[in-house]
Write a structure and sequence with these properties.
This protein has 324 residues and is of the alpha/beta class. Helix content is 48%, strand content 19%. Strands 2-1-3-10-4-11 form a six-stranded mixed sheet, sandwiched between helices. The protein has a five-stranded mixed sheet with strand order 7-6-8-5-9, sandwiched between helices. The radius of gyration is 23 Å and the shape is globular. 42% of the residues are buried.
């Protein structure tokens, strides 16, 4: 009899435990988060998911893969996802009011102008044929470099070549120089040289990536947004101090090999909560997005400037940083 009672007691304990677990899962807040199929675009979300930072905020997260930020923003507007990471290029949609910035995540250091050996400096590009992929960060980098060298875009013979073919165009001597970015720069071999890189122009150009959501979602779900933001900031801190593991988790999420993903880490400056807090205090966060907006203005994607305070949830970000 005692044995039967003991077995029943154990059964009840297990049943209660399972029920509690099921209730906790049921009570979690469901959100849908977009990421991009690259290290920068996937790393924070991968860490937040795998290391339990979403769980700490009682969030049940479904991750959705995108291959560009434009598609992610369209999905947010249509209500298919709630949050997403976007790279530099999609920020012109943010500036145009399609969504709001919650957290800056990375700053690009990938863009480089690579030239044939007979070109000694950027000014030597005058009269030369230079290729880039129009509408990308490579074009933005080129405009900035030329301006700093006292040249205008009309001073070079500018051609538009798809990013996947830029390296070949230089090595086949169809152009004198290309403005491209990591990882495509690794395809350029032999005697070609890096003429200049985006890190030389940090005061004039910043290609920042961000986590974003729509104004409607933010206004209707402020507590969920704060939970999401806290989870991502914790993940960014973890990423900064555990890069090798982060590379593995990102590779696992995007289903790429670890070696290839590790190469992509050279393309970005990964921010953490202390970097962002400092940027909020010293005003660098405004500089990041103002210089980014300048890129769109120079390439005529934007017709007029917009105050960055119109599209950054700055007070919410500051409050979240205080309560990490």
């Amino acid at each position: 009899m005692k044995k039967i009672i003991f077995i029943l007691f154990i059964f009840i304990l297990i049943s209660c435990s399972n029920k509690k677990e099921d209730d906790n899962q049921t009570n979690k807040i469901k959100i849908r988060v977009g990421y991009l199929a690259e290290f920068a675009g996937a790393s924070t979300a991968a860490v937040a998911k795998e290391k339990g930072f979403f769980d700490e905020e009682n969030l049940d997260v479904e991750l959705f893969k995108f291959f560009n930020g434009h598609a992610a923003i369209i999905s947010m507007i249509s209500g298919e996802i709630d949050f997403s990471y976007i790279g530099h290029a999609a920020h012109f949609l943010i500036i145009n009011g399609k969504a709001q910035i919650l957290i800056p995540d990375c700053i690009s250091k990938a863009e480089e102008i690579i030239s044939a050996p007979y070109i000694k400096n950027v000014y030597d590009l005058k009269g030369k044929t230079v290729a880039t992929h129009f509408g990308t960060s490579g074009e933005a980098m080129l405009y900035t470099a030329l301006e700093n060298a006292g040249l205008k875009i009309e001073d070079i013979n500018l051609v538009n070549i798809n990013i996947t073919n830029l390296a070949a165009s230089l090595m086949n001597r169809k152009v004198d120089a290309v403005s491209t970015w990591i990882p495509y720069t690794k395809d350029i071999t032999n005697n070609y040289k890096i003429l200049t890189s985006i890190t030389n122009y940090s005061n004039e150009i910043s290609l920042t990536s961000s986590f974003v959501s729509t104004a409607d979602y933010i206004n209707n779900n402020p507590e969920i947004v704060k939970k999401f933001s806290r989870a991502m900031l914790k993940a960014m801190d973890y990423r900064k101090n555990n890069m090798d593991e982060t590379v593995y988790l990102a590779a696992k999420l995007i289903r790429n090999n670890v070696e290839s993903v590790k190469e992509e880490t050279d393309a970005v400056i990964c921010l953490d909560s202390s970097d962002i807090k400092k940027a909020c205090e010293n005003g660098d966060i405004f500089k990041w997005y103002e210089t980014q907006q300048k890129v769109f203005l120079n390439s005529d994607v934007l017709e007029e400037s917009v105050p960055v305070t119109n599209y950054i949830q700055l007070e919410m970000l500051k409050n979240t940083l205080k309560n990490l």
